[in-house]
Amino acid sequence: MREVYRMTRRVASSSATVLLLGETGTGKELVAKAVHQLSRRATGPFIRVNCGSLNENLLESELFGHVKGAFTSAHENRTGRFEAAHGGTIFLDEINSISYTLQVKLLRVLQEHEFERVGDTKTISVDCRIVAATNRDLNEMVEKGQFREDLYYRLNVLPIYLPPLRDRPEDVAALTEHFSARYAPDMRRPPLKPTPEALECLKRYHWPGNVRELENYIERATVLAPSGELTPDLLPAHLRGEAPQRLGRAPRDSIESLCTELVSLGLSRVTEEGQAHEQVIGMVEKELILQVLRSYQGTQTKAATKLGINRNTLHKKIEDYSLQGEAR
Fold it and tell me: What confidence tens digit (pLDDT) does each residue in 135-193 have?
């Protein structure tokens, strides 16, 4: 993490593109804001765009704007996020979600600093710094033909890798103290002090949701704590190594029950056990998503709630496992 801080300070002074690499919840947006605040563009706008939350047409309009009449619902001219970020920084989160077609237009902005609004022929020039973030291996996506190689090299000028929390358990105590101090004033109580047993539970956990997950659990504990101590009973059951309670559990011999159990034990975590482990994970995860999608007739919002993940994550997994037919 000290290397992350050093790199953030070093790259901030330039206007070169920064690529933030790391799992969900490791703090990529915080680093993006720090790059902006430490730069000469700090007085300019900081514009965030989640590329994974919109489909191709909506994202193009969101990024580049559109003119009246460009499409059915375009009742007036609209300024895009790149124009809004002029003189400042634009943060493109989940850059790996951008479609292959839209990647061409983004490449032009990176190279020429210009673009056209949707439905317009007038070229607009912008001066903004681009900070992109991804939780996927873009190099692997390039090899699979899912991401343009030229765009990858234009983005990968100044890469900063944010390590997952499970690789730095020595940071858990400091982060716990930080989040306790943050949420205590809202609850009108002193910051929680973790007991040795609670701290051991926190350090032993593998943190698939990384720092964001830790923050949520500390906020939860602050609400529930009867005293100024953070004890193990204030932490979720799965974090203490116990099986979480589930409503309407199916018989243990059903595939969905088995898959749910594996997910609760950290199914998505890639370990050092090799490729066979990842293949098993993929097969089980795909089967679980398939069954849940079928049970909700392809309704992604309901399926995501049932799976305990957000809709964007489910949408990505549907694409990864080629389940678009079931989703429709």
Answer: 999 999 999 999 999 999 999 999 999 999 999 999 999 999 999 999 999 888 889 99
Model pLDDT for residues 280-307, shown as the tens digit of each residue = 677 778 888 888 887 777 888 778 877 8
3-class SS string, 268-308? CCCCCCCHHHHHHHHHHHHHHHHHHHHHCCCCHHHHHHHHC
Structure-token match 């692997």, residue found: 140
**Domains of the chain: residue spans and CATH:** 2-163 (3.40.50.300), 166-234 (1.10.8.60), 255-327 (1.10.10.60)
3-state secondary structure the chain: CHHHHHHHHHHHCCCCCEEEECCCCCCHHHHHHHHHHCCCCCCCCEEEEEHHHCCHHHHHHHHHCECCCCCCCCCCCECCHHHHCCCCEEEEECHHHCCHHHHHHHHHHHHHCEEECECCCCEEECCCEEEEEECCCHHHHHHCCCCCHHHHHHHCCEEEECCCHHHCHHHHHHHHHHHHHHHHHHHCCCCCEECHHHHHHHHHCCCCCHHHHHHHHHHHHHHHCCCCEECHHHCCCCCCCCCCCCCCCCCCCCHHHHHHHHHHCCCCCCCCCCHHHHHHHHHHHHHHHHHHHHHCCCCHHHHHHHHCCCHHHHHHHHHHCCCHHHHC
Signed CA dihedral, 214, 217, 222, 227: sign only: negative
Nearest residue to 225 (alpha-carbon basis) of 173, 263, 190, 178: 190
Computed over its alpha carbons, how large is the radius of gyration of the chain? 22
pLDDT digits (tens, 9 = 90+) for 62-95: 888 877 766 666 667 788 899 999 999 999 999 9
**Is the model's pTM score more than 0.70?**
yes
Q: What is the largest CA-CA distance in the chain?
A: 64
Q: Which two tokens stand for residue 211?
A: 């720092």
